[in-house]
Input
Amino acid sequence: MSAESDMMVVAGILPLFHRIVPIVVDEGPAGTATRNYVGQDRDGVRWFVKAYPAGADLDAERRALELGEFARRGGIPVPGVRRTLDGDLIAAAGGMAVSVAAYVENAETAKGGLVGDRWAAVGETVGRLHRTLAQHPAGPPRRVPAREVCDVKRARQRFERLMACFTDSPPRSEFAVWARETAARRLDALPAVAAMLKALPASLTAQIVHGDLSSPNLLLRGQQVAALIDFRPPGHRSPVWELGRIVLDPRTVLAHPDWPAGLANAAAAYQAANPALSEQELLAVPPGRRRVPGLLGVSPVRGRRRPGRGHPGTSGVRPEPACGHGRAARAPRGDRGGAP
Output
């Protein structure tokens, strides 16, 4: 199906399922696993339309949207989802399944890194998020062995399987070459990662978290957080890991030498917003989630770089955390702008 015909399907879904009459539908910011569109209605209101790839687990996507709604009800800046006329979170027609949400205007992703007051704003928002999600009906926070947060042995097995895939089918695209080189570097770095993880406490808190809180999924407006987007289905994971994943993004750490002071500001703002997480655990953020090569993995999956299109020589490859959790840490690509 061509991009033009896809937009025609979206233009038909919006009035039929959501009572939104679009005057224009354009391609939206690039997604990792979805095709995205922006529709504008007659009142000038813009809507973000996320089209899921064929074969997507729509029940899991609904649970992810419900988690975002739960956070929104707790006062977290999450774009509101526009339900269908039947009350569903996802509409399906014309061979396409989509969700519709408010478009976040005048926002940018955090891919430019954290500076200035953004550190405290992000720390405070993530703290409030985790405090809110600790009340989720999927279950309260609990203690888990630290090795469950970052399993070096499992990461090594994953890297070795991936390198075997590249041996069997040499990469032929620029992205696949990048993935192979990245996987090799991170495999070599695992011994250093294992040594660094010895600084972690014996056990850490696990609770319901965002699940994919990376720079493309954090939208900023000036020095403030505009929105958190792209939640994953509820699962107990480490809030320390999730905080570290966003505040110690390599785009920040490598570009801003003063990041230790910013990290301190973020941690202080986080604890003020979520005092349930102890200082001892917050001190585990740098050793537990510093984004050095080796803390992220690369896994072969069906075409994730461009939905519906695999990568020759890789069967579709996307970066994925080797330690901790989350859906993806993206390869370099265009900014997503203000999309929810």
About this structure: The first strand starts at residue 22 and ends at 27.
